[in-house]
Design brief:
Order of helices and strands: HEEEEEEEEEH
Radius of gyration: 46 Å
Number of strands: 9
Oligomer: single chain
Largest sheet: 7 strands, antiparallel
Distance between the termini: 185 Å
Helix content: 10-25%
Strand content: 15-25%
CATH architecture of one domain: Beta Barrel
CATH class of one domain: Mainly Beta
CATH topology of one domain: OB fold (Dihydrolipoamide Acetyltransferase, E2P)
Shape: elongated
């Protein structure tokens, strides 16, 4: 009798174990997960419950770091970079005291809308002409020559302008505004309103540049006054000799 009770007590756990194993294998939704040894497990962030309202507050996401864009900033107190209105290749048609009228051969960048006019050419085609203000620099240009013209807008007069010579800084430069004394180093920008040769070289703008190709006139301008002075001296000597002593 005692032996039968012992066998029954041992059989019950075995039967229960086989039943649980069969139930686990028969359930199609049951999944088993095995983790390798020494692999870190990412623990999910626990949701936080607002104790006053009883509303589940989602976890705060960590902001993603961003790399600042590569832009050039101008320090405070420094002048802003110049803005170009248009860059074009043009042939000089007319020159006056302060302005040059170009026939636009090719527009490189920008826009000349509102400053140019469409004019019929001799051949019957329509060409674009634009007047550029130069001031005294207009004397360095030649009618019929082709140049690379960079222009900018004069906000005061409302006209577009260009220069042949480099822009001269104001008297004292940055010292007038005490920029250097403040320790601020201002960036240097290229002058966008410059007129160059087609290959990008500077136009001759020296003191004697206006006399290029006129060597005969230059020679006469030197020899004629010298000859008159010499003739006057010879005449004076002859007159003094002719007078009685």
């Amino acid at each position: 009798m005692f032996a039968r009770r012992a066998v029954a007590a041992l059989a019950v756990p075995i039967v229960l174990a086989f039943a649980s194993q069969a139930a686990a294998t028969s359930d199609p939704n049951a999944t088993t997960t095995s983790l390798p040894v020494d692999v870190p497990v990412e623990v999910p962030v626990e949701t936080v419950v607002d104790e006053q309202g009883g509303v589940t507050v989602p976890p705060v996401a960590v902001p993603v770091s961003t790399v600042p864009s590569a832009t050039t900033t101008v320090p405070v107190g420094c002048p802003p970079p110049p803005v170009s209105q248009a860059v074009f290749v043009g042939k000089v048609k007319v020159l006056d005291a302060t302005q040059a009228v170009y026939e636009v051969v090719r527009l490189r960048s920008g826009s000349l809308a509102g400053y140019s006019t469409e004019v019929p050419n001799v051949s019957g085609t329509v060409v674009t002409e634009v007047g550029i203000y130069y001031g005294r620099d207009v004397k360095f240009l030649d009618v019929g020559a082709t140049y690379l013209v960079g222009t900018a807008l004069d906000a005061t007069t409302g006209r577009i302008f260009s220069r042949v010579t480099e822009e001269a800084p104001l008297f004292g430069g940055n010292q007038v505004a005490d920029i250097n004394n403040s320790g601020v180093v201002c960036p240097t920008f290229a002058d966008v309103a410059r007129t160059l040769t087609v290959d990008g070289a500077s136009i001759e703008s020296g003191v004697l540049s206006g006399l290029s190709g006129e060597s005969d006139r230059l020679l006469l301008a030197i020899l004629v006054p010298a000859g008159l002075v010499l003739l006057g001296l010879v005449t004076l000597v002859l007159v003094r000799r002719a007078l009685p002593t």
